[in-house]
Amino acid sequence: MRGDHDPFADAAADIGFVCSPALLYLRSLPRPTVQLIGAAPVFQDERHDGESPVYYSDVVVRSDDSAQSFEELENRVWGYNDTCSLSGYFAALQQLRNTGCTSNYFRERRCTGSHVQSLRALLTGEIDAAAIDSTTLTLSRKEDPAITERLRVIASWGPFPVQPMVARADLDATLHQRITAAMLRLDCSGASAIGLCSFGLERFVPITAGAYSAEERELRALGQLHD
User: Fold this and answer.
1) Nearest to 165 by CA among 216, 198, 207
2) How far is Cα of residue 170 from the mean position of the Cα atoms in its chain?
3) CATH 3.40.190.10 occupies which residues in the chain?
């Protein structure tokens, strides 16, 4: 977002996965630096049909916390992973705006650096609540049973369009098409994809820029995009 280094602008990066606010911001520049790759990952989640490239923002507190909803977190310490994150940062701002609250709703907002660090900060009591990417939360629960026992979800926002795969805006069109086709052919039952599938990935499916239209409107309402 504003002020952050853009590796696509100076050709330091050709392709990458980014949060959707970063895609929308970089595309809103007078000279856009990225383009959407038309293949998006579908992750395992019982809340959707197994075909949609979406994810959720799960608001998490410690199990012994009295809060039962996001509305009960006023004057608490809120953790977030970074200011480019839809699930960890902007989803909460959108919720506050839509309910008529302000960014001063929390006593303190603390940047943790990642969703995993937010979970750790919750477990150690450094923060009271955080919004966690549902894919990260699912994987963390599998790796550490203590998370399931000591933390609980009090709200879920979404579904949101999944984190997009992007390419440098001036990347060769033929190469762009080859990358898209290769991702759409990915078979999670195959040995070559086993590393990705261990993270809950099921497949890649086609996606267009229209999938991010609703989020674009939200970010414009928050004044985060160039006009």
Assistant:
1) 207
2) 25
3) 15-42+162-221, 54-160
β-pairing verdict for 108-111 and 77-80: parallel
For the segment 113-122, the average pLDDT, to the nearest whole number, is: 96
Q: CATH number of the domain at 54-160, please?
A: 3.40.190.10
- Please give the structure tokens belonging to residue 53: 């490239």
Q: Is the dihedral of CA 156, 161, 167, 169 positive or negative?
A: negative
Mean predicted confidence (pLDDT) in 46-55: 87
pLDDT value at residue 104: 85
18-49 tens-digit pLDDT: 999 999 999 999 999 999 999 999 998 888 87
Report, as an integer, the average pLDDT of 103-110.
Answer: 90
Average confidence score pLDDT of the chain: 91
Upper half-sphere CA count for residue 184 (Cβ side, 13 Å): 12
CATH of segment(s) 15-42+162-221? 3.40.190.10
